[in-house]
Amino acid sequence: MSPADLHELGEYVRRKRKSKRLTMRALGDIAGFSHTSVHKIEHGDYGQPAPEKLRRLASGLGVPAEDLYALAGYVIPDRLPAFAPYLRARYDLPEEAVSQLDQYFQLLLEKYGGGGKGHGGRRE
Predict the structure, then answer these.
(1) One domain, residues 62 and 91
(2) 13 and 49 share one domain
(3) pTM of this prediction?
(4) Are 27 and 57 in contact (CB under 8 A)?
């Protein structure tokens, strides 16, 4: 991650935090890490934050995690995941719920077609 990328990420986080009228400590509490980490990210002193940290920060700011991933220089795949892995990554659901939702989704695919762009209708 270049210093310019670190600066851009930090400025974005700072603007969003201030627009929500959050202190660094409050945002850190919401995101589940220290206000020192928020400070380091905002000032470009953090290096490349881990995706999980960015996801939690994005959640605390109410912005898409993909925005922070892009600013941090993470490559965003041009293919979307299959439905079950997406559910696991996006929602804190028990495995039984993921399985049931995936089965229902497969029924809808069979009924309405649409094998899925880039996945050929594969199930995960």
Answers:
(1) no
(2) yes
(3) 0.61
(4) yes
What pLDDT does 115 receive?
Answer: 56
Q: What is the crossing angle of helices 51-61 and 24-31, to 10°?
A: 120
Domain assignment of residue 44, given as a range: 3-71
Residue recorded with tokens 């880039």: 118
* pLDDT tens for each residue of 43-59: 988 888 888 999 999 99
Number of domains the chain contains: 2
Predicted pLDDT at 47: 80
